[in-house]
């Protein structure tokens, strides 16, 4: 391959664009091979430092870590989706153009916008109480809020006189049994200006549901840009997010019973710290910048488990919890990069599907039907020990154990599922949940668990007696020491973090990433059967460079195969 063609391949592969005329001319004017090699090296350094490299890695991240659209848990129009009440905006032809109001504070139908016209619910003159507030979604600005939504009311009484926490969303639109008059919390953090989330589209970043879909690929691009180990994709305690995404984590923690962020006024202020961010939003005040955050700092039930809270992806992070030996609730779910992201977990709505997709993405595993001439033990109860399903489930079920603690319930709204971490916070699991009896039927996740988490199976290695003693034993999400996955025993770490650590310790993550990157930058798929030794060599080179992308790319671009025009 000529040097000019190699230049084109280098720039196109790392930025998605072709070299400039000036770059071609400089290469053509170089008189010696050493001079041309120097141009290639300097061009490589230049493109690796270009924001176009970040954009290229973002596109590659979407191709590699392919998660579905964030719809489950975000398809409702009222309190769900962003887990907060929606604020509606007054029209330009009203007395308060652009002001926000909360529809549930008033009556149903068109009368709900009467406040914008200084009318009461009956259409009679009434001056609306207006407040000026700095909103969490646009720091440094002020918005006008009408009625109680902009007030500091944090509790309201229901029909029985019981005081309800305004920070926990309840019900749907126009429910006459729901109390009204709640404020939206400090800086309106319990509410959102985005309405119409029933629309399933996530076509652009102006739609909030796009942000959790975007998060996995953005974290990959962030790791590439800031020279972090790519293993942080599956064992890191941090992520990146805009204000829209951060709000989802904050509201999830609030819905699960934590008010730790109520007094926090910094998570939505982009200039409150010097957290690393993406190169496309360099302004320190941009709420749409993808800024790094430790997940536990926004959602207290996603455990960081590290004193190095800024960016810990250490294999030493460990949290052991066994519901067979205690009736206490776990402190939370250890965060594990993509494996515990709201969008990733929600787009794969069941534990076995999560295990399959993450094994495919991060361990390059494939699941296909067994050969026709293979005979299996008869199927009785457990697909991991009998029947043709054994072919896949002997691998899937030990992995799926790690992904039990994420599900969706509709107890707070008759028509919208919302995500939660079972057994954690205010979502304890009782025998009633698992009874299958009214009202725990139909959409109740406990009804599904009753049928899916059968005792004495590979997926649920607990006895009926242990479930009787503690119903939450069905949620055991630590792989037992007697199990192996990818040829490795687990280390007792709870949840997806235990799964992620196993992928790294087994070497399958390193081999898979090496294959993905080689295919991306060299342009050829490696055959794991005939090229196993070469894949192992690449994995060793990847690990030797601390699993960081830029050093590994430099190594790949030094390989002679790059010049052969494959």
TrEMBL record:
<dbReference type="InterPro" id="IPR011444">
    <property type="entry name" value="DUF1549"/>
</dbReference>
<feature type="domain" description="DUF1549">
    <location>
        <begin position="2"/>
        <end position="67"/>
    </location>
</feature>
<dbReference type="Pfam" id="PF07583">
    <property type="entry name" value="PSCyt2"/>
</dbReference>
<protein>
    <recommendedName>
        <fullName>DUF1549 domain-containing protein</fullName>
    </recommendedName>
</protein>
């Amino acid at each position: 391959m000529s040097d000019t063609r190699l230049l084109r391949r280098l720039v196109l592969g790392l930025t998605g664009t072709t070299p400039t005329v000036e770059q071609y001319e400089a290469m053509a004017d170089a008189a010696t091979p050493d001079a041309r090699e120097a141009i290639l090296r300097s061009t490589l350094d230049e493109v690796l430092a270009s924001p176009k490299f970040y954009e290229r890695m973002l596109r590659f991240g979407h191709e590699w870590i392919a998660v579905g659209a964030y719809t489950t848990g975000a398809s409702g129009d009222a309190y769900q989706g962003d887990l907060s009440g929606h604020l509606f905006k007054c029209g330009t032809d009203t007395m308060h153009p652009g002001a926000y109001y909360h529809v549930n504070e008033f009556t149903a139908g068109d009368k709900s916008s009467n406040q914008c016209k200084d009318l009461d619910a009956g259409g009679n003159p009434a001056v609306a109480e207006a407040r000026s507030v700095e909103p969490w979604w646009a720091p440094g600005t002020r918005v006008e809020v009408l009625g109680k939504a902009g007030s500091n009311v944090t509790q309201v009484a229901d029909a029985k006189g019981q005081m309800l926490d305004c920070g926990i969303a309840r019900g749907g639109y126009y429910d006459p049994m729901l109390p009204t008059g709640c404020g939206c919390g400090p800086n309106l953090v319990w509410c959102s200006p985005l309405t119409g989330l029933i629309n399933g589209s996530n076509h652009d970043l102006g739609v909030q549901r796009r942000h959790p879909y975007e998060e996995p690929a953005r974290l990959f691009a962030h790791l590439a840009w800031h020279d972090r180990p790519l293993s942080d994709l599956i064992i890191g305690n941090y992520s990146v997010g805009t204000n829209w995404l951060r709000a989802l984590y904050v509201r999830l923690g609030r819905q699960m019973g934590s008010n730790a962020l109520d007094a926090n006024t910094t998570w939505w202020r982009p200039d409150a710290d010097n957290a690393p961010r993406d190169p496309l939003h360099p302004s320190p005040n941009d709420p749409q910048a993808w800024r790094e955050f430790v997940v536990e700092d926004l959602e207290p039930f996603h455990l960081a488990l590290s004193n190095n809270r800024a960016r810990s992806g250490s294999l030493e992070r460990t949290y052991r919890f066994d519901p067979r030996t205690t009736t206490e609730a776990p402190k939370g779910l250890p965060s594990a990069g993509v494996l515990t992201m709201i969008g990733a977990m929600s787009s794969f709505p069941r534990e076995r599907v999560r295990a399959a997709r993450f094994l495919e993405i991060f361990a390059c595993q494939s699941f296909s039907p067994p050969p026709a001439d293979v005979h299996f033990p008869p199927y009785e109860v457990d697909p991991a020990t009998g029947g043709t399903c054994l072919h896949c489930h002997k691998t899937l079920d030990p992995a799926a154990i790690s992904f039990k603690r994420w599900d969706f319930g509709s107890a707070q709204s008759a028509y919208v599922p919302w995500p939660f971490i079972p057994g954690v916070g205010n979502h304890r699991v009782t025998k009633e949940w698992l009874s299958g009896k009214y009202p725990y039927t139909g959409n109740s996740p406990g009804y599904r668990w009753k049928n899916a988490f059968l005792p004495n199976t590979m997926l649920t290695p607990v006895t009926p007696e242990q479930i009787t003693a503690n119903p939450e034993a069905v949620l055991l999400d630590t792989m037992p020491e007697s199990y192996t996955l990818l040829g490795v025993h687990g280390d007792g770490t709870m949840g997806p973090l235990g799964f992620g650590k196993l992928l790294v310790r087994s070497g399958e993550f390193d081999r898979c990433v090496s294959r993905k990157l080689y295919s991306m930058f060299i342009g050829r798929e490696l055959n794991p059967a005939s090229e196993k030794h070469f894949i192992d060599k690449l994995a060793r080179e990847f690990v030797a460079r601390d699993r960081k992308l830029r050093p590994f790319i430099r190594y790949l671009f030094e390989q002679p195969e790059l010049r052969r025009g494959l």
